[in-house]
């Protein structure tokens, strides 16, 4: 029997999906992770000035950018530590909507809005395998 293929999905492929990706990868599971937003959005110096990056921007590049802007702030709010973890897991955040190569049995979402975006994207895609995708929101 074939192993189930899981995808971990959050808004920006930074925090929750990467924590799940990291934890499950340590148990030798193939568990890609994704974000569903238009870009990767991280908190900035103020609520009105988030840090925005394109999917595919390496975690190392984001880390260096934030470290150059305000290392004390981004150390205090945990972003630099989070990015260090992410760099050890994979190279860059990926957009769910950009991956047409992988096929999954289960997509685990970490927010209701994320789940809705995954379901909408699947409804809009051309069927390629005709296999069902179980979408779970945690």
Task: Give the gist of this structure.
Helix content is 37%, strand content 16%. With 138 residues, it is an alpha/beta fold. Helix 2 packs antiparallel against helix 4 (79-89).
Keywords:
6 strands, alpha/beta, Rossmann fold, 4-stranded parallel β-sheet, protein phosphatase, RNA polymerase II subunit A C-terminal domain phosphatase SSU72, two-stranded antiparallel sheet
How much beta, percentage-wise?
Answer: 15-25%
- Uncertain runs are none
- Average pLDDT, to the nearest integer? 93
Give the total of domains. Answer: 1
Give the biggest sheet: 4 strands, parallel
Helix % is 25-40%
Number of separate strands? 6
CATH class: Alpha Beta
In the CATH hierarchy, the architecture is 3-Layer(aba) Sandwich
How would you describe this protein?
This protein is of the alpha/beta class and 138 residues long. It has one domain (6-137): 3-Layer(aba) Sandwich (Rossmann fold). 37% of the residues lie in helices and 16% in strands. It contains five helices and six strands. It has helices spanning 16-25, 59-69, 71-76, 79-89, 112-124; strands spanning 6-10, 33-35, 40-42, 51-53, 106-109, 134-137. The strands form two sheets. It has a four-stranded parallel sheet. Strands 3-4 form a two-stranded antiparallel ribbon. The longest helix is centred in the C-terminal third of the chain and has 13 residues, at 112-124. The chain is globular. The two termini are 27 Å apart. 28% of the residues are buried. The model has no long low-confidence stretch (mean pLDDT 93).
């Amino acid at each position: 029997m074939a192993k189930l293929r899981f995808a971990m999905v959050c808004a920006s492929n930074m925090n929750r999906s990467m924590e799940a990706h990291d934890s499950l990868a340590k148990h030798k599971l193939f568990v890609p992770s994704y974000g569903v937003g238009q870009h990767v959005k991280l908190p900035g110096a103020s609520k009105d000035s988030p840090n925005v990056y394109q999917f595919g921007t390496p975690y190392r590049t984001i880390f260096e950018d934030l470290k150059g802007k305000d290392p004390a702030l981004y150390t205090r709010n945990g972003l630099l530590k989070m990015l260090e973890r992410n760099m050890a897991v994979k190279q860059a955040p990926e957009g769910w909507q950009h991956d047409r190569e992988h096929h999954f049995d289960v997509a685990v979402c970490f927010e209701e809005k994320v789940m809705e975006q995954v379901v909408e994207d699947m409804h809009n895609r051309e069927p390629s395998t005709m296999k069902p995708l179980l979408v779970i929101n945690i």
